[in-house]
Design brief:
The structure holds 2 protein chains of 2 kinds. Chain A has one domain: Alpha-Beta Complex (Sufe protein. Chain: A), CATH 3.90.1010.10. Chain A is an alpha+beta fold. In chain A, 41% of the residues are buried. Chain A starts with a helix and ends with a helix. In chain A, 47% of the residues lie in helices and 18% in strands. Chain A has a 3-stranded antiparallel β-sheet with strand order 1-2-3. In chain A, helix 2 packs across helix 3 and helix 5 crosses helix 6. Chain B folds into 2 domains: 130 residues, Aspartate Aminotransferase, domain 1, CATH 3.90.1150; 258 residues, 3-Layer(aba) Sandwich (Aspartate Aminotransferase, domain 2), CATH 3.40.640. Chain B has a 7-stranded mixed β-sheet, sandwiched between helices. In chain B, strands 9-10-12 form a 3-stranded antiparallel β-sheet. In chain B, strands 1-11 form a two-stranded parallel ribbon. In chain B, helix 2 runs parallel beside helix 9 and helix 3 packs parallel to helix 4. Chain B is globular, with a radius of gyration of 22 Å. Classes of the chains: A alpha+beta, B alpha/beta. Chains A and B meet through strand 2, strand 3 and helix 3 of A and helix 10 and helix 12 of B.
Chain lengths: 149, 406
């Protein structure tokens, strides 16, 4: 009986604010761009959010001109655990399986990011919206540059 | 992993000596203090002894101490209690912008009921602007509530000076005084009444009412190594307050409900111990605090110490780190077994950063990147050295992945 009670107390310590997937992406973020890119290293960049509101993210993409698929996606985020994890997961979603076609990427929904993260606390949903907004901006930046050329 | 607890301002553990005193009242001495037989008298005696002990520490008489369920309740009781009792004499209330939400939300609620509330500004260190207080005091002011020491940034308010300003103002308002003498409920009504929330100050600063010059004072158990769920409100006997909870004559008719003897006994014992250890422990914490602050200012660039350098609680450290957000910082520290807190918006429901940090005039970015470490009886230099090793690395890591480049 006593042992059981102690186990209950210890279990409480494992109840994290976020689930295991979010926690993992927060603690080990994938595809972060540590140094500013060299000129021409990426094809498009986008920024979303506002430091005043507590989160801002910037995203860089490289696009395969033939297939119109995203080849590479790097990012940097200022924000809470959910914001960092959302951008990390987003960067994987757009580059996995040979890359996401631009058209599909433009239509990517925040809900899909949240789903891949295994859910976010309701209050943190906007974090995934920001990531998706930054991606959209990066793609539009790329498309604009293409038109110019 | 070893857990290093640095959130003593959130709550403390119960001192074993306190728990020991509480135990009989949770088991064998379980009587209802209102009962006439032995068990009842036993509970009643314990409660009255506790009341006397608390009164002695404050230097007041025991019938001026009302036991409540928390610091929040005491704050509520002070604000609503005075406002409702003296609304015929005026409808103006003054609070500072950096008050605990227990005071601010009470004031806001009264505003909706038709009271006028002035929210006093503070300077960049968090000290209330006294000239603003002087200017805003008027014949309709019935209550001023300014906290003794701030829970987030540790800034200590000049309560003595504030009470002097108020007492000077009262002397000048002879006319209203003459009026109030005719009210049969009390002999002299010295309005406005001055309330201070001293929850964070207990155990660190003097609680002698005579020195402070306040009319109402809030304390609670969970910040002084006592139990949670108990607090007290000191109310000067010249003032009458309306109760929040009715339905029984407990606590002189000011707080109905069967008294929780164990919590009350625990609270008094905790306060006694805190007072006994106060000077020595404050000195120890102050030197640990200053050691830590100096090291951080030296090792982490682009940071700001929030709150006053000297007029600060001995156990409070509050920094803002540019370029990073507080929640991620706290979560990363937790990975290393360090418990700290933040005034970041991401931990609140309205997504706005701490009202205290905003009142200091901090840019929102800096308010989002705040970290509060509060030390306590078990904190050692070794603990802080461990944090000093980990924290710069975490700040650096988060800055590396941040959009904001410094």
């Amino acid at each position: 009986m006593k042992k059981n009670k102690q186990a209950d107390i210890k279990k409480g310590g494992q109840l994290w604010l976020y689930n295991e997937i979010v926690k993992d992406h927060f603690l080990n973020p994938r595809n972060v761009l540590l140094d500013d890119p060299k000129k021409g290293e990426f094809d498009g960049e986008g920024i979303a959010g506002n430091p005043m509101c507590g989160d801002q993210m910037k995203l860089w993409i490289k696009v395969d001109p033939k297939t119109q698929k995203i080849k590479d996606c790097k990012w940097r985020t200022y924000g809470c655990g959910a914001a960092i994890a959302s951008t990390s997961m987003l960067s994987i979603m757009v580059t996995e399986k040979g890359g996401l076609p631009l058209k599909k990427a433009l239509n990517l929904k925040p809900q899909e990011i949240v789903k891949r993260l295994g859910g976010l606390p309701a209050l943190k949903f906007h974090c995934s919206v920001l990531g998706q907004a930054a991606l959209k901006e990066a793609i539009n930046d790329y498309l604009k540059k293409q038109k110019r050329n | 992993m070893k857990q290093i607890y640095l959130d003593y301002a959130a709550t403390t553990y119960i001192d074993p000596r306190v728990l020991q005193k509480m135990k009989p009242y949770l088991t064998t001495a379980y009587g209802n203090a209102s009962s006439l037989y032995f068990l009842g008298r036993q509970a009643k005696t314990a409660i009255e002894k506790a009341r006397e002990e608390v009164a002695k520490i404050l230097g007041v008489s025991s019938q001026e101490i009302i036991f409540t369920g928390s610091g929040t309740e005491s704050d509520n009781m002070a604000i609503f209690g005075i406002a409702r009792s003296y609304q015929n004499f005026g409808n103006h209330i003054i609070v500072s912008k950096t008050e605990h939400k227990a005071v601010l939300e009470s004031a806001k609620k009264l505003e909706k009921e038709g009271f006028k509330v002035t929210y006093l500004n503070v300077d960049s260190n968090g000290i209330v602007k006294l000239d603003e207080l002087k200017k805003t005091l008027n014949q309709k002011t019935i209550l001023v509530s300014i906290m003794y020491a701030n829970n987030e940034i540790g800034t200590i308010q000049p309560i003595k000076e504030i009470s002097r300003i108020i007492s000077n103002f009262r002397k000048q308002s002879v006319k209203r005084k003459a009026q109030s003498v005719h009210d049969s409920r009390f002999a002299i009504s010295d309005l406005p009444a001055l309330h201070t929330d001293a929850c964070q100050a207990a155990g660190a600063l003097s609680l002698k009412i005579k020195d402070l010059g306040v009319d109402l004072l809030t304390l609670n158990g969970s910040k002084i190594y006592g139990p949670k769920g108990v607090g007290c409100l000191y109310v000067n006997k010249n003032y009458k307050i309306e109760p929040l909870i009715v339905g029984g004559s407990q606590e002189m008719g000011l707080r109905a409900g069967t008294e929780n003897t164990a919590l009350i006994v625990g609270f008094a014992e905790a306060l006694k111990l805190a007072e006994k250890l106060r000077k020595k422990e404050s000195q120890r914490l102050r030197s640990l605090r200053d050691y830590f602050i100096k090291k951080i200012l030296k090792t982490i660039p682009h940071c700001r110490l929030n709150g006053h350098f000297q007029k600060r609680l001995p156990n409070n450290i509050n920094f803002s780190f540019a370029g990073i957000e507080g929640e991620s910082l706290v979560l990363k520290l937790d990975q290393y077994g360090i418990s700290a807190s933040t005034g970041s918006a991401c931990t609140s429901t309205d997504l706005k950063p701490s009202h205290v940090l905003m009142a200091l005039g901090l840019k929102e970015e800096l308010a989002h990147g705040s970290l509060r470490l509060t030390l306590g009886r078990k904190t050692t230099k070794k603990d802080l050295d461990y944090v000093l090793k980990i924290l710069p690395k975490i700040v650096n890591d988060l800055r590396k992945i941040s959009v904001i480049k410094l």
